[in-house]
Amino acid sequence: MPRLAREGRLRRGPPFFVVRESVGGQMVAMIKYTLLALLLAVIAFGGWFWMKTDPQKLDFADRFAPGAAEHKAAPTTGIAYGDDDRQKLDIYVPDDKVDQDYPVLVFFHGGAWRDGEREGYGFLGRAFAARGIVTVVADYRKAPKDRFPAFVEDTASAIAWVNANIGSHGGDPEQLFIMGHSAGGHLVTMVALDPQWLAAKGLETSVIKGVVGLAGGYDFLPLTTESSKIALGQWPRLEETQPITYARSDAPPLLLMTGDIDTVVKPRNSRSLNARMNELGGTSELKIYPGVDHADIVMAIARPFRSKAPVIADVTRFMNVN
Predict the structure, then answer these.
(1) Using an 8 Å Cβ cutoff, are 85 and 151 in contact?
(2) In this predicted model, what pLDDT tens digit does every residue of 55-79 receive, in sequence order?
(3) For residues 258 and 226, is the Cβ–Cβ distance under 8 A?
(4) 236-270 pLDDT, tens digit each
(5) Sheet containing 102-108, strands listed edge to edge, beginning at the edge strand earlier in sequence
(6) Where are the domains of the chain?
(7) Which among 227, 84, 225 has a CA at the least distance from the CA of 144?
(8) 3-state secondary structure of 158
């Protein structure tokens, strides 16, 4: 070994670079400000996200879920089917145009007849459009400003608009299905089972090829929640607000879906209407998902949460056979 090495006196070269003390201080300050800016951005995003409704959060999660997007075409939004600002709908069309028109699914959201908005349900529109279904997401008037039967009338109006106009959006009005979650499930079954609402629009309920209820309210007297009392309680004959009152053998086929741990709209609603329809000789199918609650059943349509229940598969199968 060389003598200098043995003596520990190897000569060192000049440092790779020299940081002046003033520059070093500036770098520390820059790092601090960068971290502070990132923290503020995270806080701002968290506040923005927190202010979103649950469906809007689901839509965000669906958009940014790992993997390629299922559906890319932009929807046609804010189409008016009436004069009120709430009487609007959005249309999601499959990406690939084919020679024949697509089946149609019209969805009505939940929210206890007082909350909710169609804008949060892009995840649902994209999910079914990606499976070759022209999907319409409709809004309607809400309580307490508007009470029963205003929102039922709006449901019929939206269906009538779709029946008359969906052909220009690639949909087949001869294959028109309707679906609703929670209060929306109440609305679609009211319109499908009681002929008066579509009759007021010059239509028969036969224009509806099938009805899908996601954790809907069909048989919930007496009224026990504040929201139901506000929305329905002023009606003099409360049995007329209940879909089960109008169960009949010649109604459109029903697919009633619910979770067995739903405590918001209890599964007995679906069991009761399904039993009544079958007693009368009608067509009704009941799906009860284990370990699924009121929110889970619609969350299962968004990409990150599809393992909760096969909602999409069951709806598309129902549409294919009816």
Answers:
(1) no
(2) 999 999 999 999 888 999 999 999 9
(3) no
(4) 999 999 999 999 999 999 999 999 999 999 999 99
(5) 76-80, 88-92, 134-138, 102-108, 171-181, 210-214, 254-259, 284-289
(6) 12-51, 55-321
(7) 227
(8) helix
Residue 247 DSSP SS3: coil
Question: Closest Cα partner for 289 from 280, 278, 301?
Answer: 301
Query: Phi, psi (5° rounding) for residue 258?
Result: -155, 165
Would you call the peptide bond into 253 cis, given omega within 30 degrees of 0 as the criterion?
Answer: no
What fold, for 55-321?
Rossmann fold (3.40.50)
Cα–Cα distances (Å) from 223 to 74, 216, 233, 257, in that order, read 41, 15, 7, 22
Sign, Cα dihedral of 299, 300, 301, 304: positive
Provide the token pair at 305: 């949460």
3-state class (DSSP) for residue 229: helix
Q: What is the pTM of this model?
A: 0.86
Instruction: Specify whether the CB–CB gap between 178 and 211 falls below 8 A.
Output: yes
**Rounded to 5°, angle at Cα 204 from 274 and 271:** 5
How many residues are listed for the chain in this entry? 322
Determine the Cα–Cα distance for residues 62 and 123; give it in Å rounded to an integer: 6
CA atoms of 106 and 121, how far apart (whole Å): 12
**Rounded Cα gap, residues 272 and 218, in angstroms:** 8
Q: Which of 205, 207, 231, 203 is nearest to 217 (CA)?
A: 231
